[in-house]
Write a structure and sequence with these properties.
Layout: H1 15-20, E1 24-26, E2 31-33, H2 38-41, E3 50-51, H3 57-60, H4 68-73, E4 78-82, E5 90-96, E6 99-104, E7 109-112, E8 122-123, H5 140-145, E9 160-161, E10 167-168, E11 172-173, E12 183-184, E13 208-209, E14 215-216, E15 220-222, E16 229-232, E17 237-243, E18 253-258, E19 267-275, E20 282-288, E21 297-305, E22 308-313, E23 327-333, E24 339-346, H6 353-398, H7 413-417, E25 423-426, E26 432-440, E27 456-464, H8 467-473, H9 478-483
Length: about 500
């Protein structure tokens, strides 16, 4: 820490520097002292008012106070010197009940000096009855009736207002106290009034911003220094603006712009305003189009009530599309917040019912034709699959083993007593076999079987097979087979079908 930068409190001569260094400033003696040295430095009670806060320095500095009542409230070391005009103009000075004073460095005290202000114009305990800050006068009749109180100014000049002409009128800003000047708000025509002390404009148009209402917000286009700002709408969308925030307290108007991009399609406009009664505002609708000839601007709505507005613009009357540059301007004004605004531009083609039903019938007929064609294709495919399956079955049947059997249908007693099987199918373990016989069915006492019935049948039975019979089932060599006749296997009929 740089010790040389530290300055003793007694050597500081200004209130702001004194309080910033952790010292106390005495407004009565206009000197700086240490926090613990009030009694030592002002042992006789010379310091009546002091502070350690830099924000309170102006209250202890008599010359910086602009009003008489503020001067007298600052403390006994301040007094008001009236200029004698009767308008309330004057100066706050250091002094006491004896008169205005000036600081004497040699004596380290204030000395009365009437050269600064005549005694007749010096006020310490009360103020002149008429306090108009130099912008007006009070009537004599009022002064006599209310001599113990501050009088009300009859009229305020210099763009001031108030009971004592103490502030600027709307549209102007500045400090009107003690002859101060009020300056017109510089808002580029986008606001009716501004902050009365600093001059920051309260923009009336939504989308206009800046200290002087000189620029457009994001999503807004235009130049508020010459014209205004517009919110660019997209066709076929519904936009909702909820103007109920603190930033919207001064909003009284909003502007929109859009360009329909579709050719040969009508434009539908809809606007709905929801707000307090009798505060929904008015709307103007202007269209710029090359179809109007030399006068390309045409107004379709002028001062219409913004409650629920609907309008349709025919494509036969206007030239819509990106190349036509037909532009719609919507101006909504004279409303009060809170307010909810819904606005939309739509290019939805109208329904041609004749074309709709013709197209519907044609599509339905085509759908039926396609369904019938698919059904026929499915039939052909199913037939193809059945044929293929039949071919496979026939091929499998043709590949099975088969033999030729000769049947003797003439009566033969030996054959009836000892029939021979036409096929023997042994089981897996060769202990049994399925034996098949050709059976002649009874005719019911007639020579031939009745019509529609068969006289022959194939009967099968599950029979046990003995080893001897099993040996006969084995196929002998071709030479032996010719010389030896196969014996009939004897079997036990277990079942038949």
């Amino acid at each position: 820490m740089d010790v040389s930068a530290c300055k003793p409190c007694s050597l500081i001569s200004t209130c702001s520097e004194c309080t910033k260094n952790g010292c106390f400033w005495c407004g009565t003696t206009q000197d700086c002292f240490d926090q613990n040295a009030l009694v030592l430095s002002h042992s006789y009670g010379q310091c009546i008012q002091w502070t350690g806060n830099s924000e309170e320095c102006s209250l202890l500095d008599c010359p910086s106070i602009l009003t008489c009542d503020g001067c007298l409230l600052a403390g006994p070391n301040c007094g008001w010197c009236d200029d004698g005009s009767g308008t309330g103009l004057g100066h706050c000075m250091y002094g006491s009940t004896n008169g205005p004073a000036v600081w004497n460095e040699e004596r380290n005290a204030y000395e009365v000096d009437f050269g600064l202000c005549p005694l007749a114009s010096w006020y310490v305990t009360s103020c002149p009855a008429c306090q108009c800050n130099g912008h007006g006068f009070c009537s004599n009749e009022t002064a006599e009736e209310e001599s113990t109180e501050l009088l009300k100014c009859l009229s305020c000049a210099n763009r001031t207002t108030g009971a004592h002409c103490e502030r600027c009128i709307e549209g102007y800003y500045g400090n009107a106290l003690n002859g101060g000047v009020c300056t017109a708000c510089e808002c580029n025509g986008q606001a009716t009034h501004c902050d009365p002390f600093h001059g920051q404009c309260y923009c009336n148009t939504k989308g206009v911003s800046g200290y002087n209402c000189d620029k457009c917000e994001q999503k807004y286009i235009g130049d508020p220094r010459n014209q205004t700002c517009f919110y660019e709408l997209t066709v076929d969308f519904v936009f909702t603006f909820n103007l109920n925030g603190e930033d919207d307290a001064h909003i009284t108007r909003i502007n929109f712009v859009t360009r329909p991009p579709k050719e040969n399609t009508d434009v539908s406009f809809k606007l709905t305003c929801t707000g307090l009664l009798n505060s929904q505002g008015k709307v103007n609708l202007t269209v710029f189009s090359g179809a109007f000839g030399n006068n390309r601007l045409r107004r379709f709505l002028i001062g219409s009530a913004c409650h629920e507005v609907e309008r349709r613009f025919s494509a036969e009357e206007f030239l819509f599309g990106t190349d036509a540059n037909t532009t719609f301007f919507v101006f909504l004004y004279d409303f009060k917040t809170p307010m909810i605004i819904q606005i939309s531009f739509a290019q939805t083609p109208s329904v041609d019912w004749m074309k709709f039903f013709i197209t519907f019938a044609l599509c339905f007929f085509i759908l039926l034709v396609v369904a019938f064609a698919l059904w026929k294709i499915k039939q052909r495919f199913d037939l193809y699959r059945r044929r293929q399956r039949l071919f496979v079955e026939m091929a499998q049947m043709a590949s099975r083993p088969f033999g030729v059997v000769q049947l003797q249908l003439t009566p033969d007693a030996s054959q009836f007593r000892n029939p021979r099987p036409i096929a023997i199918e042994p089981c897996n373990d060769y202990r049994a076999a399925v034996v098949t016989f050709a059976v002649r069915l009874p005719t019911g006492g007639q020579k031939f079987v009745p019509d529609g019935q068969t006289g022959l049948a194939v009967a099968s039975a599950l029979c046990t097979v003995t080893p001897a019979q099993l040996a006969q089932l084995q196929t002998p060599p071709l030479v032996v087979q010719r010389k030896r006749k196969l014996k009939r296997p004897s079997c036990l009929f277990l079942s038949s079908s």
